[in-house]
Amino acid sequence: MLRIFSRIDPTPGASSFYRLLQPMNFMQQMRMAECIADRYDSRAPHQLIAESMAYSDINWYYQSLSPAIRKSVAEAGSWKSYWRTQAEWVPPTTFVMDTDDDLFNVSPLNPAFRTLGIRVEGVDLEASPDPTCPTSIATEGEDGKPFQLWCDGEEGFDIKRNQQGLNDYRENLKAVALVTCSTYGSEKYVLREA
Predict the structure, then answer these.
(1) What predicted TM-score, i.e. pTM, was given to this entire model?
(2) What gap in Å lies between CA 44 and CA 47, rounded to an integer?
(3) Between 20 and 30 A from 68 (CA), which of 49, 147, 177, 184?
(4) Which residues pair with 180 in a beta bridge?
């Protein structure tokens, strides 16, 4: 039976719920696959998590910015095929990344801009070299006056950190064996960025 492993945020949003958890639950119920979802539970033994990942046919992730993905893919490249049972020969695990959003073009009106914002209307943001005059993003308020949405270095918005996170994501997209996309628009951004 196919084995699938995934690491899922303990408080998943709608996307990871519908893109990973629901399909895994369905495959498990229909006995199509044995699915293991690591919800980052600190009580789960590290050895169990490592074995679940290593002995799965597929490691399935949703839009992960973690550089640990690339390390895992690189390490898995040295793994050998093995006999799971006397009749079942298994190749090393395959890494898959799923996406349904263009993380490289998040609107400043979206709260996720705090950790993903690097562009506004297709123009890359640059961190200001002058800390007394940080880069800021504003929109027109109800009174017609500018209203500051984001200011680099304030309230968790950090352009350099966001750029590094999205560079890690871009490298993850390149490292995995397969990227699944929910729409042609998602496919276009993956092909553009990776």
Answers:
(1) 0.84
(2) 9
(3) 184
(4) 98
